[in-house]
């Protein structure tokens, strides 16, 4: 679908997210000739800054994040001509006159307000936009995470933003849903008959979803120490991936059909009990160690970190979905910082063969598994048992590999490119609905309450490892292993 003319307003337009992700994403779509010549990007910030000073800031902070192959003097000049800087105080309604003057008065234009700001500013910004008559029928608002820190704050954000914008105008962004592989998961499940008969409890042993990072908290410690891994990653990214893996076939790819199917998964997740809160959840915090052979400090040794911080940098848990399709199938979710590798993947492991006709016993055969890699290299692989060459019938694990970059020559869009295009086109499929957001928070709320009240501390793990030993024991109780524990040594 072609784009129409738009004014895209970036609140936090001089901030880190805009410079690293949003402006490079819009440049990429400009270089691909997706944007009309008249469309503009209005960057809003608190700092008093001239237009020329802002463009120099963009050149210094955003340009290095643009792929070199896409950079040309002609496109860069065209892109910079789209940019307008407006200084205003987001909490002061009177200062929005500067934004009103920068916006074009044509009511038919698509207006998008992207709030790359702390969530406590969402309501005030929306109220001030309405007070200045800047919300048109075709306006849209994009909300960046964190979308609250608990169920009550998420409900408050939904209610306050909902006073100004209709649900059909609200785009709650989760950049993981913009990744090519996540959408290929939809294609894999619902565009092929091969997997549907097997995509259920009779044939699947377990599902593992991992988002691991080698990096520590870096310069995000102020934010991270108040949130932790569960709020930062699991409540949103990991649960959204779980929903796509587990949802029933939607009636179509229409936004509400897909989001209804995801909501049903969230509402079908088994509630935690006092026993499972202890047994089925592991939280950890990294200590000093080595990543890629380099010595790195522990979390509490990071600059400005509290000496007795109880913030988790790792969380792993076992989830179950109480439906006919998935009853009894464990879903293991895991995320952490300062891990042994940086990756995001979904592992669907099928049940083992019931009996072997070969010399080796069935127990020696590796179960088939489908691995969906989201990063660093997007692709799919299927692990099978195959005969080794030579005399005799000896089986060995083999891998069928699909690398999306090798298979498709079409240039690939980054997640924010795709999601920004969808916002500008008015396509809501890849964005969370308000009831989805609240259902996710409702499910994790008992975990947060338990951690708050039991006063325990996260289990330590060495930087450069795969997390606390209890993480492996979580699966070991079910006779299972994390995928890296089953891979052959290099």
From TrEMBL:
Residues that bind substrate: 175, 179, 213, 232, 337
Q: Name one GO biological process term.
A: glucose metabolic process
- Name listed for the protein in its UniProt record: Glucose-6-phosphate 1-dehydrogenase
EC numbers on record: 1.1.1.49
Q: By its UniProt entry, which Gene3D superfamilies does this protein fall under?
A: Dihydrodipicolinate Reductase, domain 2 (3.30.360.10), NAD(P)-binding Rossmann-like Domain (3.40.50.720)
Provide the residue positions that the database annotates as binding NADP(+).
145
In the record, the note on similarity to other proteins reads: Belongs to the glucose-6-phosphate dehydrogenase family.
Q: Supply the source organism for this entry.
A: Massilia cavernae
Keywords carried by this UniProt record? Carbohydrate metabolism, Glucose metabolism, NADP, Oxidoreductase
User: Record's HAMAP family?
Assistant: G6PD
Instruction: Give the active-site positions.
Output: 237
Origin superkingdom = Bacteria
| Catalysed transformations (reactions) | D-glucose 6-phosphate + NADP(+) = 6-phospho-D-glucono-1,5-lactone + NADPH + H(+)
Where in this chain does the record put each Glucose-6-phosphate dehydrogenase NAD-binding domain?
Answer: 9-184
Q: Which pathway does it take part in?
A: Carbohydrate degradation; pentose phosphate pathway; D-ribulose 5-phosphate from D-glucose 6-phosphate (oxidative stage): step 1/3
Protein purpose:
Catalyzes the oxidation of glucose 6-phosphate to 6-phosphogluconolactone.
A molecular function (GO) held by this record is: glucose-6-phosphate dehydrogenase activity
Pfam families attached to this UniProt entry:
G6PD_C, G6PD_N
């Amino acid at each position: 679908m072609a784009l129409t003319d738009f004014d895209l307003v970036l609140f936090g337009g001089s901030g880190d997210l805009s410079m690293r992700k949003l402006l490079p994403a819009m440049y990429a779509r400009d270089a691909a000739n997706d944007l009309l010549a008249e469309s503009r990007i209005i960057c809003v910030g608190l700092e008093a800054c001239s237009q020329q000073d802002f463009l120099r800031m963009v050149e210094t902070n955003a340009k290095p994040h643009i792929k070199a192959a896409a950079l040309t003097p002609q496109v860069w000049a065209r892109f910079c001509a789209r940019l307008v800087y407006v200084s205003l105080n987001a909490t002061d309604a009177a200062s929005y006159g500067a934004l009103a003057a920068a916006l074009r008065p044509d009511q038919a234009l698509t207006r998008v307000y992207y709030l790359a700001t702390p969530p406590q500013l969402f309501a005030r910004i929306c109220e001030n936009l309405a007070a200045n008559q800047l919300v048109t029928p075709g306006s849209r608002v994009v909300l960046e995470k964190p979308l609250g820190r608990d169920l009550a704050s998420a409900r408050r954000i939904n209610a306050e933003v909902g006073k100004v914008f209709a649900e059909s105008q609200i785009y709650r962004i989760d950049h993981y849903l913009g990744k090519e592989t996540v959408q290929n998961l939809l294609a894999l499940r619902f565009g092929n008959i091969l997997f549907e008969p097997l995509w259920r409890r009779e044939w699947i042993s377990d599902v593992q979803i991992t988002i691991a990072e080698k990096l520590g908290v870096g310069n995000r410690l102020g934010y991270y120490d108040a949130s932790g891994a569960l709020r930062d990653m699991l409540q949103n990214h990991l649960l959204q991936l779980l929903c796509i893996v587990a949802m029933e076939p939607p009636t179509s790819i229409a936004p509400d059909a897909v989001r209804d199917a995801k909501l049903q998964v969230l509402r079908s997740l088994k509630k935690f009990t006092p026993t499972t809160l202890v047994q089925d959840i592991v939280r950890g915090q990294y200590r000093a160690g080595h990543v890629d052979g380099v010595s790195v400090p522990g979390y509490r040794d990071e600059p400005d970190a509290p000496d007795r911080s109880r913030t988790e940098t790792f969380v792993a848990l076992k989830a179950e979905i109480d439906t006919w399709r998935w009853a009894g199938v464990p879903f293991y979710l895991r995320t952490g910082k300062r891990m042994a590798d940086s990756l995001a993947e979904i592992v669907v492991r099928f049940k083992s063969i019931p009996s072997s006709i070969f010399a080796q016993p069935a127990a020696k055969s590796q179960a088939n598994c489908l691995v969906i890699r989201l990063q660093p290299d997007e692709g799919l692989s299927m692990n099978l048992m195959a005969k080794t060459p030579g005399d005799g019938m000896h089986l060995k694990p083999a891998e069928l590999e699909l690398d999306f970059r090798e298979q498709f020559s079409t240039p690939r869009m980054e997640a924010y490119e795709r999601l920004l295009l969808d916002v500008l086109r008015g396509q809501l499929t890849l964005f969370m609905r308000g009831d989805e957001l609240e259902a996710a928070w409702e499910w994790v709320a008992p975990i947060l309450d338990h951690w708050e009240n039991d006063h325990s501390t996260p289990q330590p793990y060495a930087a450069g490892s795969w997390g606390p030993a209890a993480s492996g024991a979580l699966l070991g109780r079910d006779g299972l292993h994390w995928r890296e524990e089953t891979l052959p040594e290099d």
